Amino acid sequence: MAACMLGGFGMKAEIGLAAFARLRDQELLKGTPTAEAIEVALSIPFVINGRTCGYRFPRQKARYLSACLAQLDGLELHASDTVLRNRLAELPGIGLKTASWIVRNYRGSSEVAIIDVHILRAGRDMGLFSQQQEPQRHYRELEAAFLAFAAALKVSAAMLDGLMWDYMRRLPTSVLRSTSPRKIKENVQSRQHPSREHLQAVPGPARPHAREYRADRRPAGRLSR
Fold first, then answer.
1. What pLDDT was estimated at residue 69?
2. Which of 13, 34, 84, 123 could cysteine-pair with 224, CB 3.0–4.6 Å?
3. With left for phi above 0 and alpha for psi between -120 and 50, is residue 114 left, alpha or beta?
4. CA-to-CA distance for 102 and 8, rounded, in angstroms?
5. In whole angstroms, what is the distance from residue 63 CA to residue 202 CA?
6. What pLDDT sits at residue 198?
7. Which residues of the chain, if any, have pLDDT below 50?
8. What are 52's strand-pairing partners?
9. Which residues in 196-211 are b (16+ Cβ under 10 Å) and which e?
């Protein structure tokens, strides 16, 4: 739960995992740590790949995480993955996406979908989601569409969204902008002469990395999205 809560919100996966490792090493994930102690730990900058990075919203995240850890012992681990997800979504600072993410990592479940910004963008590009659907208001509708898509392909939802997430997050910003709804109309006239820059910028399938997303094995470093 802590690892998933500390990731997301526009942060790179490496920062979320570094924050989790720091709190774990300082034993701030045991018992009921105070929000103040967690905030102090998160406020110290992280060094990621030689660069100094600050954690976003340390006070808010510390308050939520402290409150959730205090309620963890009383949480019933329901047999149904969806019921457990819905129960987690009632805890402070945990929405349906983060709750689904926790259940996915804890149980390897394909009964829930993690509709983050990368899956949302891919789903819109392929016509699976409408441009009007937003996770904040239509999460269950987006999830149902994604799970139906995985079922139609006869693949694990866990493997499918893992591969889609990993590929989409690797795309250069220039490519993502060129496929946004606002740019589609502008780019229509250039269909017969596609940009070589864009074609070269799109990475091909990362074979060694893709193998980590087998349905029977959890991928490494998957906790922060």
1. 95
2. 13
3. beta
4. 12
5. 40
6. 35
7. 182-222, 224
8. 47
9. eeeeeeeeeeeeeeee
